[in-house]
Amino acid sequence: MKRKAFLLSVLALCFLPVFGQEESFSGYEVSDEAAWCWFADPRAMYDTVNDKAYLGYIDVHGSVKAAQRDADGAGLEEVLVRSEFQPDDHNNPTFLRLPDGRVMIFYMRHTDEAKFYYRISTVAGDITRLGAEKSISVANNTTYPSPFILESDPEHIYLMWRGIGWHPTIARLTMPDANDDVTIDYGPYQMVQSTGARPYAKYFSNGKDKIYVAYTTGHPDNEYPNWLYMNVIDVSGSEPVLKDLKGNTLKTISEGTFAVSKTSTYKSSYPNTIIDAPTGYRDWVWQIALDEDENPVVAMVRISNDKNTHHYYYAHWDGSAWTLTYLANGGGKFHSSSTEYCYSGGMTLDTEDVGTVYLSLPVDGVWEIWKYVVDADGKVSDKEAITYGSEKNNVRPWVLPGSKGQDLRLCWMSGDYYYWMVNKNYPKGYPTGLRSNVALKAAAKTSATPVADALPAADLSSDGGFDVSVGSSSNAFTIIANISLDADNYGDTLLSGAGLTYSVPTNYKPQVTVGETVYASSNALLTSDESASLCGGTDGKWYPTKLEEVTLALTYDGTTLTVYRNGLIDQRFDVEGLALSDLHFGEAGGVLNGITVYDVCLAQQEVVSAQEEQALAIETERVKNLSTELENWDFEAAYETLHPTGLATDRAVHQPEKWTLTRTSGNENDLTALCSADQYYDSFFASLDQLEDGGEHTYWVRQKWGTSTISLSQEVLLSEGKYTLTADVWKSGLGGDALVDVVHNGTTTSAASLENKTAWQEVSIDFESDGVHGTKVVLTALHNNAGYEKIIGFDNIVVTKTGEADAISAVTAEMKKPVGMYALDGRRLAVAPTHGVFIENGEKKVR
């Protein structure tokens, strides 16, 4: 059904839904953990030769991923391209179809490594079968790969990226040889030299002999005004030449850079290289396309000097001059972070219908995707809301090139966004997902009956492992095992049976052995999750993190074996002679939490669904002994004084009863206190406002000099329903943050960021429990700026179920000690209020 909206106000962007349509539409999920930047493209494409769509993205764990969909819409297959990569949304992969039909995937680390990586499918048009990872070292750092093959030079790949001097860089690669190796036979060369430190470039090709490049003077954060330029890379001759839009030669690329500036002299000398030379704006570029006459079209944004207003424009070259069409006010930055004010919601062009542009626009505080149509006269002739009524922001849209006539055309990012990378300053990074205009995932639940299904919770380190009897010899099978890994014993056989072994060598890259043949994965059994506590930024370091738990699945259809890691395709290859047999888990150690075996080969979405069912059964077993309410919410119970490694003996970190303490990258100056009897309480905390009388406890944290994270967590099993968590938080001093989170079934709900001030502040989080999964409350004191003292306090962590009969029952149901005086929100009061409503000894009082 086509979804339209009647426009009430162009400025307000308000609309009423068409009669009969749903009240909201936020697209269909492609991946629940996915992000992409807009400078590495094509981040998704439709392969018209192989009739398949490919989408590439990266998640907060540092997993570079890709998805593939057949033209007949027979479901989506999701692939792990690279594990434990730099967790940064700049690192999304890009695609290139080779002349033999195979697909080449490029990916690079953001800023901090002089190398680019690639993998090539072993079969034409099938990225579920990827060859080994390859890499090419260069002299300068690499970011944003954009590859092309042109008709005028079909024997080479032209690769563009941000490289030499942080500027647009070009290299020519040979086609892959029999081993998938490529070499650079031209370049790398820096193409232009700007007066700005970091020009940002977008590329587009006519497919024949030209590559168009649009770029800025520099980063709009740093350049005011920030101009926008365009050059043409002509590869029709003996070597690439940089030209302007009228065909005038600017520079033979190998002979040196073309100098760019934002001066009147440059403007008069090279008028046909400038798209926009504003005097009062900071330009940024989003995309290039070509009209039917091969005249360029550019999606761009003008950002106000204060960076709070982003104006979307459609720029069109008519062969002699540029026309700029104003489209809409894109608001300001789309995210909640106090940085990156130039991050617009974003825009994209339909490269096969260049008058169509998609925008991310704020509607009632949420960024939604809109479709705008620009006619031949440069006027906006139509508008349509693609998403509406969304709970989360929809940003960075992208139309798949080559997708004209297909149902899948448009994808975008959706969700919360805190920063472009995961590091100790922004540990949540970019917890977004990817969505599309059509449903891509087929029905998931299988009707097959398991031939083995158990929750053994078996210790694989003892008694020689664990044996599973399956009672079948089918030559098609599916094995799904959830395993808590032994982090100290990565390096032995994990599974044997069915004619194969699955082992984890000391390099952490799993391998399947069938007879004498070893099929090694390119992906280590690692993530980059420790970046959240250890990484300081684009520092060139790697933060490999061993998995504590993995769901391993192997499927076989009689010909093809597929190995899944946590639902993602890790390996797929053809092998003969496998048949289901009794299985053995062991040697590598760990705990087998659950095992399910089928005598049929399940498709990926069926595997994912079966994994979810297995995980639910394991979770139900795990949480059955959890408390049903938060305990020691006011820190008044007993606690233990800890002296972790590296902590000076005159400091103390306390672990309150019922709470789990996690201390990462601690410093010897860290200390915590709960009451006046604790070490150094009087020195650091006694002068601060106390919430309760009688020396009652507050969990105080003092951090300085180093970078450290001190977290308290408690998990409970709440009945099904809606809840509110309230907490009192103190956050003063520089160099850190106080975080309050609720984690339920893999979803983290966070309290709003607090002001930095010498006063108590209350936070509130609304969340839901399904009554099956545990709910974890997490309190975090984060320090990230050595030399600055940070004082953080937590108290009165109260969880209240929404919809209780009245305030008294809500309070008494949650409070362990009803004797005393309480506000209606559950906070204990030292002195009775002179007016208002409160509770004293369990009775409602009105004054």
Oligomer: single chain
Residue stretches low in confidence (pLDDT < 50, at least 5 long) are 1-20, 805-818
Largest sheet: 7 strands, antiparallel
Distance between the termini: 58 Å
Query: What is the CATH third-level topology name of one domain?
Result: Jelly Rolls
Total beta strand runs: 66
Percent helix among the residues? under 10%
Going by helix content, strand content and strand pairing, the class is mainly beta
Number of helices: 5
Please state roughly what percent of the residues sit in beta strands, choosing from under 5%, 5-15%, 15-25%, 25-35%, 35-45% or over 45%.
35-45%
Q: What radius of gyration results from the CA coordinates?
A: 29 Å
Give the overall pLDDT as a whole number. 91
Structural shape: globular
Assigned CATH superfamily of one domain: Galactose-binding domain-like
| CATH class designation of one domain | Mainly Beta
Task: Tell me which CATH architecture of one domain applies here.
Answer: Sandwich
Outline the structure in words.
By secondary structure, the chain is mostly beta strands. Among the domains are: 452-508 and 544-623, Sandwich (Jelly Rolls), CATH 2.60.120; 639-803, Galactose-binding domain-like (Jelly Rolls, Sandwich), CATH 2.60.120.260; 804-847, no CATH class. It has 5 helices and 66 strands. Strands 36, 37, 39, 46, 47, 48 and 50 form a 7-stranded antiparallel β-sheet that branches. It starts with a strand and ends with a strand. 46% of the residues are buried. The model is unreliable at 1-20 and 805-818 (pLDDT under 50).
